[in-house]
Write a sequence for this structure.
C-alpha cells in the first residue's frame, strides 16, 4: 500500500466534494507565510509525515500571523518527528469545531467480507480501536457491495444505527453527513484506495461538516493508474523512499515475473555490523532474521525474490543489497516447492564474481533449499570456489536450524571485521 | 545483431554478447568442441531455447527482436556455462543504478 500525505489526501477529498479547511502545503517558511497571508486568518501548521499522534510529538503548531506561521514552519521543516524527517508542512485555516466524528472505508480481508467496509463513529479525534473497546454502540459499519456502491439511503441507515450519546443531530446535519459518506466512498473507489480515514470529521460551529485530517493508502497495484499522485515507490512505508529504494523499484516496475522486493530498514546506515539480508519467501527468512537480530546483528534491508523470478531480476536485487555499506550477506532461501533454485544459483555466482575482488574476505552465507537444490548447490560451489570470499552454503536440513546459521554469520562477520581493522592499522 | 566477430542481442532486461573470436566451436569450426556447446546445453536446460547451433557456432534460434524479449526467461546460464566449460566468451550486461 502506498501512503499519501495529509495535504495530498485533502486534495482528493476536495475534488470529491468533501469540505476541507482552506490551505496549501509549503516547503519553506516563506511559502508558509505567503499561504497564511492568503488565508487571512489564524492557521494551523502541520508537519507532513506518515505518522499519527503528531500533536503530542510537537508536529502541529498554531499561528495567528504570517510571521508566526513562518516561524512555526521553520521549526518543523528539516526537523525529525517520530524518527521521520519533515520536508513539508500543511498550512491551513484554524477551524472552530463543535463536534468530532470518525469516518473511514477500509478493505476487509475477512473471508466473510473481502470488500470495502464503511465505518462511522459518533466520537472522533481519538483512536477508533479505543472507542470500539470503550463504547462500541458509538460505532456503526456497513459492508459495501462493490458493484452496487452506496447511496444516501444506505448512509442514512448507517447513521441511524449509531448512538450519538444523547447528543442528537439536526436533520440537516445528518443529511450533510450522509452526503459526505457517499462522497468519501466515491473518492475511495475512484482513487483505488485500500484505506481512507477521516479522523476527525468535524462539525463546525456553523454546523458544516469538514475533514480536519485524513489518512489514505492506495492499492500498490493501482498506482500506475494515478500518475497525478506522484508516488515514486508504491510500497507500504512509513517514510519517503531512499535513493537506493527508488533504484530497486525499477527492478520491479512493470516486470511481473516473480518478486524482486527490496526495502531498507533505516534510511541511513551508521556504524558497522550491518547485514545485507536476502530472503526467499516468508517463514524461513523470518526465522533467520529473528535469530540474527537476537545476536545483535543489524539487518540493513529486507529483500525477497520469491514467486520464481528470472535470474536477471535476482541478480539486480543482490546488486541492490551489495550497494549498501554492509559487513556480510546472508541468503535465507527456504522456499521448498514453487521455484527451481538454479536461477538463484546463477544469479548469486554472477553477482559475487563481479563483486568479490572489490571486497576480499567478505562473508557470504547462503541457505538455499528447494527444487533442484542439489544442482543449484553444484552451480554455486563451482562458481564460488575461486572467489576470495568467506562463503558457506547450506541446504534444506538447516531451514529450522537458524541458530546454527546465525552462529556462522556472527563468526564470519566478526572475522571479516577484525581482518579489515587489521588491514586499516597496517596502512 | 550478428556480425562475423560477435553475436549481440537484447532481452527485456539484459544485453548478451557472444565473442566469436574466442568461442571455441566458432573459431575452430568443429562439430565436437571441447566446451561441448555448453551455452546451448544451458539454454536448453535452464532457458527457452533462444540459442541453437548453426555451422558449428551458437546463433539465435529466434531472430525477431520482440519475440526474443517475450520468450527469453533471462536465466543468464549461458554466461556461467561458457565460463565453466569453455573460454568464457559470453558476457551478459544487466544495467543497474
Amino acid at each position: 500500500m502506498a501512503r499519501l500525505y495529509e495535504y495530498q489526501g485533502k486534495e482528493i477529498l476536495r475534488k470529491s466534494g468533501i469540505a476541507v479547511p482552506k490551505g496549501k502545503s509549503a516547503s519553506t517558511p516563506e511559502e508558509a507565510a505567503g499561504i497564511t497571508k492568503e488565508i487571512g486568518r489564524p492557521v494551523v501548521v502541520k508537519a507532513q509525515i506518515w505518522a499519527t499522534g503528531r500533536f503530542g510529538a510537537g508536529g502541529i503548531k498554531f499561528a495567528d500571523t504570517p510571521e508566526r506561521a513562518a516561524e512555526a514552519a521553520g521549526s518543523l521543516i528539516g526537523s525529525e518527528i517520530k524518527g521521520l524527517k519533515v520536508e513539508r508542512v500543511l498550512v491551513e485555516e484554524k477551524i472552530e469545531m463543535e463536534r468530532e466524528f470518525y469516518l473511514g472505508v477500509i478493505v476487509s480481508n475477512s473471508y466473510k467480507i473481502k470488500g470495502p467496509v464503511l465505518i462511522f463513529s459518533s466520537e472522533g479525534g481519538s483512536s477508533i480501536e479505543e472507542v470500539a473497546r470503550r463504547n462500541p454502540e458509538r460505532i456503526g459499519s456497513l459492508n459495501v457491495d462493490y458493484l452496487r456502491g452506496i447511496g444516501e439511503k444506505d448512509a442514512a441507515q448507517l447513521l441511524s444505527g449509531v448512538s450519538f450519546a444523547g447528543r442528537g443531530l439536526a436533520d440537516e446535519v445528518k443529511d450533510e453527513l450522509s452526503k459526505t459518506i457517499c462522497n468519501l466512498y466515491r473518492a475511495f473507489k475512484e482513487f483505488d484506495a485500500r484505506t481512507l480515514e477521516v479522523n476527525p470529521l468535524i462539525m463546525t460551529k456553523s454546523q458544516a461538516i469538514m475533514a480536519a485530517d485524513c489518512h489514505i493508502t492506495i492499492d500498490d497495484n493501482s498506482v500506475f493508474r494515478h500518475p497525478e499522485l506522484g508516488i515514486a515507490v508504491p510500497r507500504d512505508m512509513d517514510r519517503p523512499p531512499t535513493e537506493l529504494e527508488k533504484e530497486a523499484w525499477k527492478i520491479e516496475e512493470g516486470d511481473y515475473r516473480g518478486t524482486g522486493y527490496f526495502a531498507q530498514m533505516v534510511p541511513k546506515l551508521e556504524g558497522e555490523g550491518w547485514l545485507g539480508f536476502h530472503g526467499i519467501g516468508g517463514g524461513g527468512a523470518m526465522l533467520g532474521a529473528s535469530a540474527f537480530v537476537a545476536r545483535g546483528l543489524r539487518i540493513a534491508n529486507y529483500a525477497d525474490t520469491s514467486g520464481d523470478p528470472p535470474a536477471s531480476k535476482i541478480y539486480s536485487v543482490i546488486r541492490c543489497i551489495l550497494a549498501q555499506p554492509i559487513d556480510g550477506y546472508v541468503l535465507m532461501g527456504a522456499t521448498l516447492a514453487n521455484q527451481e533454485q538454479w536461477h538463484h544459483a546463477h544469479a548469486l555466482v554472477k553477482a559475487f564474481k563481479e563483486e568479490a575482488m572489490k571486497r576480499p574476505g567478505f562473508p557470504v552465507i547462503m541457505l538455499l533449499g528447494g527444487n533442484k537444490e542439489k544442482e543449484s548447490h553444484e552451480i554455486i560451489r563451482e562458481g564460488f570456489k575461486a572467489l576470495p570470499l568467506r562463503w558457506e552454503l547450506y541446504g534444506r536440513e538447516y531451514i529450522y536450524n537458524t541458530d546454527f546459521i546465525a552462529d556462522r554469520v556472527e563468526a564470519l562477520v566478526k572475522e571479516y571485521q577484525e581482518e579489515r581493522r587489521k588491514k586499516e592499522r597496517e596502512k | 545483431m550478428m556480425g562475423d566477430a560477435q553475436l549481440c542481442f537484447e532481452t527485456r532486461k539484459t544485453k548478451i554478447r557472444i565473442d566469436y573470436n574466442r568461442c571455441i566451436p566458432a573459431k575452430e569450426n568443429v562439430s565436437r568442441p571441447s566446451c561441448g556447446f555448453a551455452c546451448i546445453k544451458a539454454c536448453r536446460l535452464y532457458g527457452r531455447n533462444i540459442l541453437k547451433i548453426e555451422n558449428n557456432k551458437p546463433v539465435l534460434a529466434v531472430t525477431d527482436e520482440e519475440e526474443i524479449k517475450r520468450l527469453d526467461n533471462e536465466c543468464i546460464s549461458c554466461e556461467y556455462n561458457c565460463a565453466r566449460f569453455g573460454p568464457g566468451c559470453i558476457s551478459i550486461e544487466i544495467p543497474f543504478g
The two ends of chain A are 49 Å apart (CA to CA). Residues 266 and 411 of chain A are 24 Å apart (CA to CA).
